[in-house]
Structures are given as structure tokens and as C-alpha cells.
Write a structure and sequence with these properties.
ten-stranded antiparallel beta sheet, Jelly Rolls, 237 residues, single chain, 1 helix, rod-shaped, C1q_dom, mainly beta
Length: 237
Amino acid sequence: MRGLAGFLLCSLLLLALHGTQVAAQDERPDPRMPCANWMGGVPGHPGHNGLPGRDGKDGKDGQKGEIGLPGVVGLPGFPGAAGPMGQPGIPGMKGQKGESAYVYRSAFSVGLTERAPHPNVPIRFTKIFYNQQNHYDASTGKFLCSIPGTYYFAYHLTVYLTDVKVSLYKKDRAVIITYDQFQNNNVDQASGSVLLHLSTGDEVWLQVYGEGSNNGVYADNTNDSTFMGFLLYPDTD
């Protein structure tokens, strides 16, 4: 009995001693930890920056994204500075022929000085109002065409003492004939006008038509008998 009791007591003592050692080992700090619970050390200095790592491999392209919404239209910008002058362009096509810059002039205005011109011959209007181009010949009473084209002619004749029958001639042919019957104790007027196309060298004049009984063309200081003509449109061809 004593031997068994002694053995049990010894076993209990060994167990108690072993538990104390285990507990003491559990309370020791892990040396791998920065700071042990049972011992507070001074914090260390930060370490140096490490070297950059190498670039990784390119990844695979991702899926195409959806189309975004349209952006807002911006405001117009300020005009830019003028650029340098460009090179001359290629000449254009030749234009159509225009009218001549030359101004064609042919005109006359004359009056009568004789009271009773002779019949069947050109009436000589010797009072010159205008004859700058000298296309009217006062010595013959005829207008000579120097510029072919369309002309306007007109006459205003005072009628006195007897009837008047006059005609406007072109190249020995009567173009128009005017007749005015004289009224006693009165002064009348005979007039006419016409458009004619003339060629170079054509002549135009006035003359009493018929016999001397129709020769009442008159002129004095207060009454005039006039004859005039001028070029309207020259032939440009």
C-alpha cells in the first residue's frame, strides 16, 4: 500500500511540473513577430524602395464596346488669318465678240433760206444747224451715206402762198410724198418722217414733186423750213 501511494504521488508531481513548463513555453513570443508581447522594441527605419518589376505580357484584346452617344456640336471658331495668295489660274475660254468700242456718228440738221425752191430738183437747205461729219452737202442739197446702217429722216416745211407737194428721195426714187393745201391768209406746215436702211454711197434728199403750182415751201426771218437725219444703228458686220 505504501509503495503504490508513493508511486501515485510521484506521478502527480511530474505531471504538475510538466504542465508548468508547457505553460511557460506558450507564453514566450514568436521570434518571427516584429514585437514580442513580453518585450516592446524600438520601431525600425523604413527599408529602401525595391527595383521596378518587369513589364508583363500584353493581354488579349477585349470585346468591342458599344457606340457612344454623339457629342455636343461645338461653337464656330473665330476666322483664321488670310492665307497666302495662290498661283494664277488657267486662262478661261474666249468670250463672244462684243460690240465695237468705236462710236459711229452721222447726223445733220439744216434749214431753208430760199423762199421758193425750184421743182423737180433737190431742195438746197443752206442754213446749217449741225453738220459736224459733213455728210450733208449744202451745194447739192443731198445727204451722202458714209456709214451703212439704219437712219431716221424728218422734215418740217412752212407752207405759204400756194399748195405744197414734196417727196423724200432715195437713189432717184420717191420714198414718201407729202401734200398740204394752202389756206388763204394762213401759214400752214407740211411734215413727214421715215426710217431707211442705207448702204455706203446712197443719197437722200427732198424735192418739190410735180409742177411749179405745188411749190409753196416758204421760209423767212420768223418761219423756218427744216430737214434733218441721223444714224440710229450702224451695220456692224
